[in-house]
Specification:
- The structure holds 2 protein chains of 2 kinds.
- By secondary structure, chain A is an alpha/beta fold.
- In chain A, the strands form 2 sheets. Chain A has a 4-stranded parallel sheet with strand order 2-1-3-4. In chain A, strands 6-5-7-8 form a 4-stranded parallel sheet, sandwiched between helices.
- In chain A, α8 links the parallel β5 and β6.
- In chain A, α5 crosses α6 and α6 packs across α7.
- Chain B is mostly helical.
- Chain B contains 11 helices and no strands.
- Chain B is globular.
- The two termini of chain B are 37 Å apart.
- The chains are: A alpha/beta, B mainly alpha.
């Protein structure tokens, strides 16, 4: 205990880390509360995020669906904007897959490298590290920043929801995966993690717009299974999943859906909830008050 | 491994050449179909589409709803025992379907993708409100989901003005046809 107290008092002396940061369209707009809480959390754990200057859409599902060339050029330009020598951090799992697969493709293919260099007038940086936000936990220890971590999210029953984040295309199978990151992190903070079998079921992404009934069925299944297993809230790793789980759920009295970054920030004592929670469709405030996490 | 006689090989060869995916190795174990969250919206299970191509039934494959309903969540490819990149096959089949001008089984989904790329072409980033409004106009379905749209606006989930990139020339480069 003394050790953790001492560490806790000295967080200012821990070295600050620096990442360039690609928010992507969902975090920038509909999931703005995800960005706000993520920035707060990173600041608290001594991580400086510098937004990638003039970044563009990664291409999302639509580019690779209907236009192969555009689906390559969009992530390529983003890669060309990344400053040398610092890792590029991405918080959206789908943007990560687009950018990382394109990066590895260019790295392997000399012709593509030439194309890249001709198009963006920059040498290809074959040492660029592209990481997901979750990889921050490989580089920091929450214990350095929290006194009594076990008490922070005590008594709240959380169902982790990853969506397609855990399913990687074959070319990324040997890359970093993110199984269990939310369970490990949140249980260290005292949360009661619920296992319910639907945490890696896809949220439906754009079918939410183009085939709402199909998305509704999948979303209701995910949320109801979490509720049956005793969860009081869901926690998501992706801003798009968060939106779909909220807008396509037609169950009576569904449980609230929190962004992972919101729970993390709260555990670190951030008091910015007034900027996040009014943007939620299912208000998480009553639950958090009941569990003593908000006053 | 399934060997076909030459008369049936065209699309299969084309896809193998452009993607490097050897999907003649599909065992039809149906792991992809059993795990797919959107199977009920598809006319063929994912391995069924592979079967069509293996049998040289190109038109059926390109006209299937499966290739559009698949969102590429990778649930299938990450559990496929032969590590076949099924979503990549769906991508290629969609491109082929557009290129060959066959009847698109799910025009709404294609319309949606087109509207997403239209906003990216204009702003360098997506703009959800514009995508949804133009999509609704195109599909002549203005009223359904209106309540949801209003709720999202109220919760400030839909920005009224788009977020744009500064370097307009870069967008030209990204969308320039070779």
């Amino acid at each position: 205990m003394e050790k953790s107290l001492k560490r806790n008092d000295n967080t200012d002396q821990l070295e600050r880390m620096k990442f360039s940061f690609f928010p992507g369209c969902s975090l920038k707009a509909s999931g703005h509360e995800n960005t706000l809480s993520l920035l707060k959390f990173c600041d608290k754990v001594n991580v400086d995020l510098i937004e990638l200057e003039d970044w563009n859409c990664c291409g999302s599902s639509s580019a690779h669906s209907i236009d192969h060339m555009v689906s390559q050029n969009l992530p390529m330009r983003n890669i060309s904007l990344a400053p040398k020598g610092i890792p590029l951090m991405i918080a959206c799992p789908s943007c990560l897959i687009r950018m990382k697969s394109m990066y590895l493709k260019i790295k392997k293919d000399k012709n593509l490298q030439k194309e890249y260099e001709a198009l963006w007038q920059k040498p290809f940086d074959d040492e660029l590290e592209i990481i997901h936000f979750f990889e921050i936990f490989d580089r920091i220890s929450l214990k350095d920043y929290i006194y009594d971590p076990k008490g922070k999210l005590k008594n709240i029953k959380v169902a982790p929801y990853y969506g397609c984040m855990l399913s990687m295309p074959p070319e990324l199978r040997l890359e970093k995966n993110y199984y269990g990151v939310m369970e490990k992190t949140l249980s260290k903070l005292g949360a009661d993690m619920i296992s319910y079998g639907y945490g890696a079921r896809c949220c439906g992404t754009y079918l939410s717009a183009a085939k709402p009934k199909l998305a509704e069925k999948v979303v209701n299944e995910i949320v109801s299974k979490a509720m049956e297993a005793g969860a009081e809230c869901l926690v998501t790793s992706c801003a798009m999943c968060h939106l779909n789980l909220e807008i396509r759920c037609t169950l009576k009295n569904p449980i609230p859906v929190l962004h992972f970054s919101e729970l993390l920030s709260m555990a670190l004592g951030v008091q910015d909830q007034k900027k996040w929670f009014p943007r939620h469709i299912v208000d998480p405030v009553p639950l958090l008050q009941k569990r003593g996490l908000l006053t | 491994m399934i060997d076909l006689d030459d008369s049936h090989k065209s699309l299969l060869d084309e896809i193998t050449a452009s993607s490097g995916i050897d999907f003649s190795s599909c065992l039809h174990c149906k792991t992809c179909a059993n795990g797919c969250p959107f199977l009920e919206g598809m006319d063929y299970p994912p391995n069924g589409v592979i079967r069509l191509i293996q049998f040289g039934m190109e038109e059926e494959a390109l006209k299937s709803s499966t290739i559009w309903v698949c969102v590429g969540c990778n649930t299938c490819s990450s559990s496929c025992p032969m590590a076949i990149d099924i979503p990549a096959i769906m991508d290629i089949l969609r491109h082929k379907a557009i290129e060959k001008g066959v009847k698109i089984a799910e025009p709404d989904i294609l319309n949606f993708h087109t509207e997403v790329l239209n906003t990216v072409k204009k702003y360098g980033r997506t703009h959800k409100l514009e995508i949804m409004m133009r999509y609704k106009l195109k599909t002549m379905d203005l009223l359904s989901d209106m309540g949801m749209g209003l709720k999202m606006l109220k919760k400030r989930k839909l920005d009224l003005t788009p977020s744009k990139i500064q370097d307009k020339k870069a967008i030209g480069k990204i969308f320039k046809k070779k």
